[in-house]
Amino acid sequence: MLNKTLSFAMGCCSCFGFIRTPNRQSQRSKPTTNNNLCQEPLLDDDIEDEEGEPLYNDEVTNNSGDEGAEETRPKRSEEILNFRVENGMICRQFPVKETRKLVRSEDENGNKMINEYIREYKIGSGSYGKVALYRSSVDDKHYAIKAFHKSYLLKLRVAPSETAMMDVLREVLIMKMLEHPNIVNLIEVIDDPETDNFYMVLEYVEGKWICEGSGPTCGLGEETARRYLRDIVSGLTYLHAHNIVHLDIKPDNLLITCHGTVKIGDFSVSQAFEDDKDELRRSPGTPVFTAPECILGVKYGGKAADTWAVGVTLYCMILGEYPFLGDTLQDTYDKILYMAFMFILVPISQS
């Protein structure tokens, strides 16, 4: 017990950079702009690469530079995360509860129940499933539960070699490792092999989305934006210290508690790396928050892309509008790449 307490107080090995492997050499492709962009919703992240490349960096690399040498590929996020979990490299005080038995019932008022959790109302829905508010009959606390159908996830292809189920399981693996005041906490996973249902029980964040209904009249002001930015940077720094990149930082994925604390959520497209070499080749995030290097078809750094998205989010928080929003996807990308951006300085009135 003492060892566990000390481990949490000090942070896991990855926090201090003990988990490191030599950087691998890789060949860079020439910068090319994708001119065959489809017109998808610019504020949504359901845009797939036209070549169908997987979300992880699975490019084959040649470490020796010799044509005849045996080629190796970087490990996938799932391999890295499973290794960390199996070897106790988890930065949590208490592990995520894993439940293999699902009991669906009703309480005395006719409300639907999942094990100990009583359903209250639907919160929202995403590409893969729905989110509803539940109350625990054990501790009387509220939780947000994401519900999925495994058969649907297994059929839904997000890349030629990857299904939506892999996305969800990777999200679970990432959240199993993490615990931080500025990151939404995963409490329990319910996965009964005898049923088609899969549930993620998450900490319930009472507040609304940051910049909900973004528009010219929804700016938060500099003081509030500064306070929120501090929390966002704190959570993101923690992720990057564990060689995890979020890849979809935006107002919709930032929740605010009733006490004014911002928490980063939705790790469905996040990736993990063995070391600081965080190279990726495609951007699974939301177009208007995409960094310029992600558009060119070359390798880019995941941490740098997260940082760019934080900057765009800060702009949205202060001014209540998007800095690079075009009428089409191509127009949006052109603005990100080529638009001469200017800030309008407004003098502060003196009392």
From TrEMBL:
Domain Protein kinase: 117-351
Biased composition (Polar residues): 24-38
Keyword ATP-binding: yes
The UniProt record lists the keyword DNA damage: no
Assigned keywords, A-Z: ATP-binding, Kinase, Nucleotide-binding, Serine/threonine-protein kinase, Transferase
GO cellular component: cytoplasm
Molecular function GO labels: ATP binding; protein serine/threonine kinase activity
UniProt-annotated stretches for the region Disordered: 24-43, 53-77
UniProt superkingdom: Eukaryota
GO terms, biological process: intracellular signal transduction
Catalytic reaction list: L-seryl-[protein] + ATP = O-phospho-L-seryl-[protein] + ADP + H(+); L-threonyl-[protein] + ATP = O-phospho-L-threonyl-[protein] + ADP + H(+)
SUPFAM superfamilies: Protein kinase-like (PK-like)
Enzyme class, broadest EC rank: transferase
SMART domains in the record: S_TKc
Residues annotated for ATP binding in this entry: K146
Record EC number: 2.7.11.1
Pfam family, one: Pkinase
PANTHER family referenced in this protein's UniProt entry, alphabetically: MAP/MICROTUBULE AFFINITY-REGULATING KINASE, SERINE_THREONINE KINASE FAMILY PROTEIN
Record-stated family: Belongs to the protein kinase superfamily.
Protein name: non-specific serine/threonine protein kinase
Organism: Glycine soja
